[in-house]
Write a structure and sequence with these properties.
Blueprint lengths: L22 H10 L2 H20 L14 E7 L6 E7 L1 E3 L2 E5 L10 H8 L2 E6 L2 E9 L2 H14 L2 H8 L6 E6 L3
Antiparallel strand pairs: 1-2, 1-5, 3-4, 4-7, 5-6, 6-7
Length: 177
Amino acid sequence: MTPSYGESMASFPDVRWGSDTSRLRRSMTRFGKTRAGSWMVRTLTPLDRYVIERSHGRYTVLGPIGAPTMLLTTTGALSGLSRTTPLLFARDGDDILVAGSNFGQMKHPAWSKNLIEHPDAIATVGGQAVPVTAELLAGDAARTGFEKMIEMTDVYAEYRNRTNRNIRVFRLRAHTA
């Protein structure tokens, strides 16, 4: 899988649109914890996908609240076709973490199965396409990774409370040049 535009880089750019300390973020986070808020975010996902894809990961509907967003392009587990999904992420040193929360629904998101079957993917952050290899975390590493997602936005704690499934957490490591 190769980026279709721009130069790829060996690390993730540190860009974020908006502020993670704004009143808007606090109120949107409170709303996002509710079932209605989750439904609204899921409903807006196609619009968000449109905005984030057209801007190559630079802008998102969630941007004004300072949420770190990315596009994750995986290879379909069954189809073998490229699939792109907008996701929130948390930083962990030189790597980034993503959680297959699926808004606390009972099913794992398709992109997480794709990463298990085909761990090489493309993470597009701030307009930069970065080739990555995904590692499914387990045990303490998964718990610690999920806690980092909660630190980024505590909506993830609510998602964990809504489901009895084990939410998959992945470490995305940039390929070195």
